[in-house]
Write a structure and sequence with these properties.
heterotrimer; A alpha+beta (531); B alpha+beta (159); C alpha+beta (276); A: 531 residues; alpha+beta; Aldehyde Oxidoreductase, domain 3; Aldehyde Oxidoreductase, domain 4; seven-stranded mixed beta sheet; 15 strands; globular; B: 159 residues; Ubiquitin-like (UB roll); DNA polymerase, domain 1; 2 domains; five-stranded mixed beta sheet; 5 strands
């Protein structure tokens, strides 16, 4: 049952909660229980054709020759789609927001870089015919040495995986081969520390395995446009990506989706739409491209594996004084969204704790594995696993209760974070206290009395003294209060009107040259500061 | 080579032609037009395509369509009677037993197979009954609660 | 290419078609063959099946038990006289798979599937084959070594009905209630006075087919089923095994946990489904 702890931060709270805490049925649950929610494949068309893809059996190989003549002759085969047919055969997802260079072909032509990479497509009257025809295509390969380990890939002389990034790392801002975070003096921090705890953490790639596999159907419309029914989680993203790869105006495409049979991040990469649109244009017929389950597992992107080294310096009294993180995100053969995962990872270090000396290097590495992508907090969740394992080890090392240890080291309002921003609206301490209470986990009184609103600020590297008395006893507000995103400074009385927004002291950054797709820009990606 | 396929579907006689060797899932979706049955793996391992054949739960993707001649098949499309939902459908809605909705038709049929034979199952029996159905969203607990809720709603049971 | 389906009312006719047609495969429950057809396996050109009621007959009451190859796991679970096989039948798939999976089909499942066959192996079952030549019978153990090359149709399996409580079975999985086997163990333990005589132990997923654990069987001869008595058998539990290495478990892991689960099974501490 949902319990709302309105006693916590009571004086900041807008208590007019109408939806939160009330069960609300999904607007499509009636469709789900009657089997009428329209997933992309729940549309039928006369003369629907089927696209299936020939995929590389090698992790890394040069394609010497492709002979599809026998396949082309088979009854029921309507069209063979080759690399040369793809209008724009090099792309990267985030080119839509000018982040990263085009590096991934829709169909490989000279080199294949991971097992499962698409090489050729066959459009036929049934999936069976398409699969039988694929079995008749003869490809000869020259296998090449491959690299599967992120640290091996970064060594001098390693196999070069990705032609766009020959040194096997993504390039940030045109020149940096990794993300860097520097705060304080890490060497001094370790020198000062009473104990050092370091370890290496390794994740596996994780497959989303949605019950509905990736797929889409492209249907020529009567006015020269194409309607595309798709499983994508990202309709506009997929539309713009498909337009780019097909060298079409985006207003020539009408994407219909929204009912996704499980995404979790695995239906953002737009893996089927570009080629199915091309197939529909080349045949003039509706075409479906649907992943089989084996394709979904092997070729559909996983959450990338991460290897994370953490070295912490801690004092006997429990304060962490130094944290060094070196993290490698295994992007597989192409970028997809891994570049963004690394930014998120760097932004999350060192976790929700105030540590005066922080040093991090985070790499997006290319290997000859299935290209990785988004999944449920990618870039952060694995890092948190590593950091929280470290927190437990540190607590053990200093002989402290692990929850008290976290409360001791938690951010407090006014603390300076390693990213040189002041911590605001912190709540880790309160969450830990409530969790301990629910678990009947005993905490010493002094830790039960600690607060995110106390003890932070100047003494811990912040520039403003934000510490104030603990929250007053709960009184239901007589008039609805607006939620304030800025906690008022010490000693100011509670307000009934919302505080005015702080004045701008710097002009907003100039808008960079517009993208051809007019897509918005992500400030976290570009590092532009928001006021 | 097309072969005739016929069976009873949700109480109605159905006849169609399909390629020899086609599985029941494809015949239901492509030839007969019952899109309430979903396909997840085409290997018989996820349970998404579960239908009832003569009251028994079956994974339609590995069932040879022509072997269903003369049999009585039930799918999610046949659960409701006109405007009235089946107690399982109502229970799934009330217990938040669906998120993406893709496993839901298969879950409903697996649950129906259980309740038709065993109107008062234990929790273990419910868990076993849906043991062949994968859900990637809900964590299963809301589905188990929904089936137990439907089982307890005796006053709303239909024949 | 298209697949042809040929249905025969009599098992013997189906057997004839199976041996005479090229690229012919017999469809029993369908869980294996239909999957291959869905994946456009080119080796399946003709599907042969039968509607012969004899194919799914159960003769379970006398000392010699005969199960038609078409008997499903669900049919076994519905038969009280086969209660000793219920743990093995219940361990197969979920309810829908149990309605389709057959005794005969399970004989051809590749490791780590085919746990029901492990129980049949412990029961020292024989396999009855039907072909153009008529019927012939051979021990299951021998059949398993040559099943890939076998062109005849499996018509039935037969075994001697075990005494009460003599057959024990465990399937070890990572997921519950159903999951692919990390391993399975079936043990037939005759021995009224507490001293085991003529034990038969079979493993699933410890080799490409279910196999007998002959070293463990010998080490158990004349011993009591207590911790000290079974110790020699546990010590050689994994000898001679070549476990499969797959996404479910590594060969190393299977070899490590096998003695643990065998020990629990022999001491009567095992539920029929256990976590790895």
């Amino acid at each position: 049952m949902l319990e709302l702890r309105k006693d916590i931060f009571a004086d900041e709270r807008d208590d007019n909660l109408k939806e939160i805490g009330q069960p609300t049925a999904r607007q499509d649950i009636l469709g789900h229980v009657t089997g009428t929610s329209p997933f992309y494949d729940d549309h039928r068309f006369a003369n629907l054709l089927h696209l299936k893809i020939l995929r590389s059996p090698h992790a890394h190989a040069r394609i010497r020759s492709i002979d599809d003549s026998a396949a082309a002759r088979m009854p029921g085969v309507k069209r063979i789609i080759r690399a040369a047919d793809v209008p724009v055969n090099l792309n990267t997802l985030l080119s839509l927001i000018q982040f990263g260079k085009d590096d991934e072909p829709s169909l490989a032509s000279d080199v294949v870089r991971y097992k499962g990479e698409p090489i050729l497509g066959i459009v036929a009257t049934s999936e069976r015919v398409a699969l039988d025809a694929l079995a008749q295509v003869r490809v000869s390969y020259d296998p090449l040495p491959a690299v599967f380990d992120v640290e091996e890939a970064l060594k001098q002389g390693a196999v070069s995986v990705n032609a766009t990034y020959p040194k096997n790392t993504f390039e940030y801002y045109g020149k940096y081969d990794h993300q860097k975070l520097r705060y304080g003096d890490i060497a001094a921090g370790f020198a000062q520390a009473d104990m050092i705890v370091e370890d290496r953490y390794q994740m596996s790639p994780i497959e989303h395995a949605p019950t509905e596999t990736n797929g889409s159907i492209a249907v020529p419309d009567t006015n020269g446009r194409l309607i595309v029914y798709t499983s994508t989680q990202a309709l506009f993203f997929s539309l713009d990506t498909s337009a780019k790869i097909n060298a079409m105006q985006s207003n020539q495409l009408h994407f219909i989706g929204g009912t996704v049979g499980g995404g979790f991040g695995g239906k953002v990469d737009t893996l089927t739409e570009p080629l199915v649109i091309l197939a529909a244009r080349l045949t003039g017929a509706p075409v479906r491209y649907r992943f089989g389950r084996h394709e979904e597992m092997q070729f559909g992107s996983p959450r990338g594996a991460e290897r994370i080294y953490v070295k912490d310096g801690v004092m006997k009294d429990g304060r962490i004084v130094a944290r060094q993180v070196r993290s490698y995100f295994d992007s597989g053969a192409y970028t997809r969204l891994s570049s963004y995962a690394v930014v998120k990872c760097a932004a999350h270090i060192p976790g929700p704790y105030t540590i005066p000396n922080v040093h991090a290097d985070v790499f997006c590495v290319f290997t000859n594995r299935t290209p990785a992508t988004a999944m449920r907090g990618f870039g952060v969740t694995a890092l948190d696993f590593a950091l929280e394992c470290q927190m437990d080890k540190l607590a053990t090392a200093v002989g402290m209760d692990p929850i008290e240890f976290r409360i001791l080291n938690a951010y407090r309002d006014g603390d300076m974070k390693a990213h040189r921003r002041e911590a605001k609206n912190c709540a880790l301490i309160e969450c830990a206290q409530v969790a301990a209470e629910k678990a009947n986990w005993p905490l010493r009184d002094e830790f039960r009395r600690m607060s995110s609103r106390q003890g932070g600020g100047v003494a811990r590297g912040g520039t403003t003294d934000r510490s104030r008395a603990p929250a007053p006893a709960i009184a239901a507000p007589s008039a609805p209060q607006r939620v304030s995103y800025e906690r008022p400074a010490a000693a100011s009385p509670p307000r009934s009107a919302p505080p005015p927004p702080p004045p701008r002291t710097t002009p907003p950054p100039p808008t960079p040259a517009g993208s051809s797709h007019g897509a918005p820009r992500f400030s976290s990606v570009f590092g532009t500061r928001r006021r | 080579m097309k072969t005739p396929i016929q069976f009873r579907l949700n109480g109605e006689d159905v006849a169609t032609f399909a390629e020899s060797g086609t599985n029941l899932l494809d015949v239901l979706r492509e030839s007969v037009g019952d899109l309430s049955v979903k396909g997840g793996c085409w290997q018989g391992t996820c349970g998404t395509c579960t239908v009832l054949i003569d009251g028994a739960p079956r994974v339609s993707c590995v069932t040879l369509a022509e072997s269903c001649a003369g049999r009585s098949i039930e799918t999610t499309a046949g659960l409701r009677r006109g405007a009235d939902l089946h107690p399982l459908q109502t229970a799934f809605m009330e217990n938040f037993a669906a998120q993406c909705g893709y496993c839901t038709p298969g879950m409903l049929m697996a649950a129906k197979a259980l309740l038709d034979r065993n109107p008062s199952p234990t929790r273990e029996e419910v868990v076993d009954a849906i043991g062949g159905n994968i859900c990637r969203c809900t964590g299963y607990e809301p589905i188990i609660q929904a089936v137990l809720t439907a089982a307890r709603g005796d006053d709303r049971r239909r024949a | 290419m298209t697949v042809t389906v040929k249905t025969f009312a009599r098992l013997t006719e189906a057997a004839g078609a199976l041996s005479s047609e090229r690229g012919a495969t017999f469809l029993s429950g369908g869980t294996l063959v239909m999957r291959a057809v869905n994946e456009a396996d080119p080796s399946i050109q003709t599907i042969v099946r039968t509607t012969d009621p004899n194919y799914a007959h159960i003769a379970a009451t006398s000392g010699r038990v005969e199960l038609g190859a078409g008997v499903t796991m669900a049919a076994i679970l519905a038969e009280r006289d086969l209660a000793y096989l219920h743990p093995a039948a219940r361990a197969v798939g979920g309810p829908a798979i149990r309605e389709a999976a057959t005794v005969g089909g399970k004989l051809f499942a590749h490791a780590p599937y085919g746990d029901f066959t492990t129980a049949l192996l412990a029961l020292d079952a024989t396999v009855m084959l039907a072909g153009g030549f008529g019927q012939r019978e051979l021990p299951l153990e021998e059949f398993l070594t040559r099943r890939e090359r076998e062109a005849a149709l499996v018509a039935a399996v037969a075994f001697k009905r075990p005494g009460n409580g003599e057959l024990r079975f465990v399937k070890v999985t990572r997921m519950h209630p159903k999951g692919v086997a990390v391993l399975s163990i079936a043990a037939l333990l005759p021995g009224a006075s507490g001293r085991v005589s003529g034990a038969r132990i079979a493993y699933g997923a410890m080799a490409p087919t279910p196999v007998r654990a002959k070293m463990a069987e010998r080490a158990l001869e004349g011993r009591a089923l207590d911790a000290a008595g079974i110790a020699p058998a546990i010590a050689v539990a994994a000898d001679g095994t070549a476990p499969v290495d797959d996404a479910i478990a590594s060969a190393w892991w299977r070899r490590e946990i096998l003695p643990v689960h065998l020990r629990r099974l022999l001491l009567g501490e095992s539920a029929s489904m256990r976590r790895a």
